[in-house]
Amino acid sequence: MPPEPSSRPVRTRFAPSPTGLLHIGNVRTALFSALFARAGGGSFVLRIEDTDRARSSAAHARALMEDLEWLGLAWDEGPASDAPANDYYQSQRGAIYEHHLERLRAADRVYPCFCTEGELKLERKRQRAAGEPPRYSGRCARLAPQASWRRLEQGEAATLRFRVPRGSSVVFDDLVRGSQSFPTEEIGDFILRRTDGTPAFFFGNAVDDGEMRISHVLRGEDHLSNTPRQLLLLEALELPAPCYGHISMIVGEDGAPLSKRHGSATVADLRGEGFLPAALLAYLARLGHHYEDEGSFEFAELARGFSAERLGRAPARFDRAQLLHWQRVAVDRLGAEDFIAWGFAAEPESPPGAAREAFVDAARPNVLLPRDARHWAGILFAKDLALSAEARRALAEAEPRLLVTAARLAADGVTDYEGLSAALRRETGVKGRALFRPLRAALTGELGGPELARVLALMPPERVAARLRAAAALRGG
Asked: Whole-model pTM?
């Protein structure tokens, strides 16, 4: 008998199908698998399940690997985006699957099934109407074996089904959900090979896990009913079975499964918005998993605190506000040059070189995404200024003398915050909110944002004077 997974080296895997872009649910599965491997001092394997010929594409495979690399989820074994290793693509493992199918045929554990999709749909419809769970009736299992195999060899279209033993139960301990038991009577004989010769999910996925000596599999709870089938198959093939853990699904704010209608649902979406990979990992590591140290942020810290025992069973609710919290942490940790490279990737000349470090210091608290950085660079360095409706109201409500006096002082060279505010208090008697609110509106067109002292320090004196004159004119001073 193969050794128990707990006594084998830890080996986890992520096995996506390249049929679309990598979404949040996929990424969390990959992250949990990588964290589990690191926590156990083991290996993380990437495998591409690309046997769906109609929907799989090399472009999607490259894209998902690029997303994983961008996130920093490096795999210890698997293909590289620039030099694919065929051993990790299911489409290249056909000889392995045929070998195991022949073993099962020799043991009379598989048989050809000639039922059409229409016949199977009708059968499932009758079962549902009778209040029975839909499963294959086993009609082709009762055909004469020799005649059945001869029909297949003569070219008649057929799938290959696994004979599920009757009268027993498949029992296993789920890493997340505890003890599980499935009566084999309720499973039904399942397909191992499709009519086009490609391996079905149950078969290719289980064989690869056994062949690659995967010790632990973390995957979505929607796969829970697949596990007894795969355990039966691995037992029949005398391949080592992993420990399975079925993690909770991710839902949106409305409790429905997370989808595009909830906003950004793919890594490409979030990357396009400007979310930092560290922020995404820090948040997803907590989406359905509890950390004792809530400050854990770096991957190594997340791995040290990761445990299957802390995985929750309830649906994990995607909360963009929480993602933005971790984005705040990630942005605050960026060095000045990295901040500029991230915020102005498409505008390498902005902000002006001499002012870059001062701009980062001033703008960072008000920046969560690159668009915020570009917004404040435009306000601080552009010649023209657009005023928000709130800023216009603040200027309209300002003490009439305030803006005229501010414009005169700026024209005389008083453009540092301390000097300007002190002179304005002395000459106009205006202070506090009534002073700095109109000043901020006049200088930035907004009522919130970076500290006014930093704003004034970043602006050339002539721009400060020009904006104050424009605000005074607007006010009618």
From this structure: 0.91
